[in-house]
Amino acid sequence: MKFMGYIFKFLGFENEEVRSKPKKVKKAKASFKFKNGQMTNRAEHIDGIPVYYPENFVQAREHASFLRDKKAFIISVESCSREDADKIFEYFHGVAYGLRAKMITLEEDKLYLLLPEGMEVEE
Fold it and tell me: What is the spatial distance between Cα 74 and Cα 18, in angstroms, rounded to a whole number?
């Protein structure tokens, strides 16, 4: 940073090159688990982003720490009851708001992508 950059920073002006660009996540490709030589229906990762399949609200709450650690993840509520799925959606919506993260619906009422602050999805 040059001398004028320090002066601008001291006065509260930020130089455009100082601002960091958000990370981008590329289009999704799914990888699947193999169990006993057979492929299961559940993707373990989608384009390198881990997918979690909680069976109830208590299990889902354990994954909120990933957002605090600035890690993106996908949560699928397909194996939950409708009541737990609604609780999980509301909980992560609140967590995302509190941590300035993004919650993107990938599949209506089933699959949600949670991105920490500073990450974006590449179209």
Answer: 31
* Measured distance CA(39)–CA(15) in Å, rounded: 51
Q: What is the pTM of this model?
A: 0.64
The residue range of the domain holding 81 is 21-121
Q: What is the mean pLDDT of residues 57-83?
A: 88
Q: Per residue in 75-98, pLDDT tens?
A: 999 888 899 999 999 999 999 999
CATH number of the domain that 60 lies in? 3.30.110.150
User: How long is the chain?
Assistant: 123
Within-domain flag for 28: yes
Number of domains the chain contains: 1
Bridge partners, residue 38, by sequence? 35
